Amino acid sequence: MSILCGLPLVECVYCLACARWAWKRCLHTAGHDSENWGFATAEEFEPIPRLCRYILAVYEDDLRHPLWAPPGGYGISPDLLLLKKTYEDTRGRAPPYILYLDHEHEDIVFAIRGLNLAKESDYAVLLDNKLGKKKYDGGYVHNGLLKAAGWVLDSECEVLRELVAKHPNYTLTFVGHSLGAGVAAMLTMVVVQNRDRLGNIDRKRVRCYAIAPARCMSLNLAVRYADVINSVVLQDDFLPRTATPLEDIFKSLFCLPCLLCLRCMRDTCIPEEKMLRDPRRLYAPGRLYHIVERKPFRMGRFPPVVRTAVPVDGRFEHIVLSCNATSDHAIIWIEKEAQRALDLMMEKDQPMEPPAKQKMERQETLTRHNDEYKAALQRAKTLDVPHAYTPPSEYGTFDDEGDENSTRSQGESSNKSSVDESWDALIERHFDKDEHGHTVLKKE
Question: Rounded CA gap, 355 and 369, in Å?
């Protein structure tokens, strides 16, 4: 009888716990994801609105007579457009792209368009993946996006190598949106790993801007390549937060709000420690730029602010329950809000008169990025992220005892191998084989 009397109490406690969890989940906003990040500077954020316009230019059939140009145009000179590939040219193996030589900014830009909802080939690329299906450079990557990136590099390798050699002071920038952002990130990884194919290009000359990217690489790779890959996310965008297999989303595209809500509830129940230690779980790549323009319980858009970091834990882990989760994924909105954010940054900055000050600010930004990059690598090691990589110390010391033991064992093995080699040489010099295969002493 006492047990039966206790059941209503247990049910009440359970319902209250569920209500508290649901209330906290509904109060979670996009601003919470980046509230502890630093603010981006105008100098480091300057390329992003311009590169968004380059991506929009891929959608045009004729850049000399554009149909959907944003205010101010695309900023592209048609005479400097070196390549423009369509679906017919790629045969569905990769999204359409352009190659543009930007003399004004000393940049070689490779821009890739986003997902086309009317093209089955784009779905084939995006859905060609399962958790743990493809390993690359000590981590896991999206199989379909990696195959598309490999095909693009094989197709345009000669052109890129000639441009890199002809313009040694120019950067090589890969940029894309949505599906194209994933291909651009994978393409950057492949180029960095095979720099000899582009004439041994310096790693510092290669960079990537993934606009609203799909999750495409494991956490250790996302942090390790943060020095060359940058991801841009607008407020509540669902795709960089979607850890579920993408096939579940696009198979249920017409019930997307319901599916996102259910997956959101499920992902919230998974402890973050468990997610971080799953080596197959994919993440948005590289350094993150988060454009925040809305506040909870307030109507309309506010002046956007841009926060940036190389986070390890709390890296867009959960979907935000928002009516703007899909509209914030549109490249048109991202370009517009990114330009607004840049204009506000420029207004706050003092007039840049002396070049020495510009150079000093640029150096401070590079130093801050380098420090954040190293801190993220160390943080990944501290959290036991699978296959996390820690760079060697600047002073030639070891970061932890494991590295020291590893180095010591390598030294011992090399010494042992040298002793073995010298012993084999000694035997070969003084002994020989007779006709029966027996070892005998050589005659002097």
Answer: 21
The number of residues making up the chain comes to 444
- pLDDT digits 0-9 by tens, 379-434: 777 766 777 766 554 434 334 444 444 434 444 444 444 444 444 554 555 556 55
Side chain identity at residue 139, one-letter code: G
pLDDT tops 60 at residue 253? no
Q: Which residues of 162-196 are buried (b: 16+ CB within 10 A; e: fewer)?
A: ebbeebeebbbbbbbbbbbbbbbbbbbbbbbeeee
- Cα dihedral 389, 394, 399, 405 sign: positive
Q: Do 238 and 212 touch, CB atoms closer than 8 A?
A: no
CB-based contact 172:207 (threshold 8 Å): yes
User: What mean pLDDT do residues 237-250 have?
Assistant: 68
Contact criterion met (CB below 8 Å) for 145 and 186: yes
CATH number, domain 34-349+365-383: 3.40.50.1820
C-alpha pair distances (Å), 259 with each of 13, 251, 281, 322: 28, 10, 19, 13
Tell me which range, 51-65, 259-273, 419-433, is most confidently predicted by mean pLDDT.
Answer: 51-65
Residue for token pair 């209503």: 8
Distances 210 to 183, 284, 322 between C-alpha atoms, Å: 9, 9, 22
**Residue 85, beta-bridge partner list:** 97
The domain spans of the chain are 34-349+365-383
List of residues 6+ apart from 209 with CB closer than 8 A: 47, 48, 51, 173, 174, 175, 184, 230, 231, 232
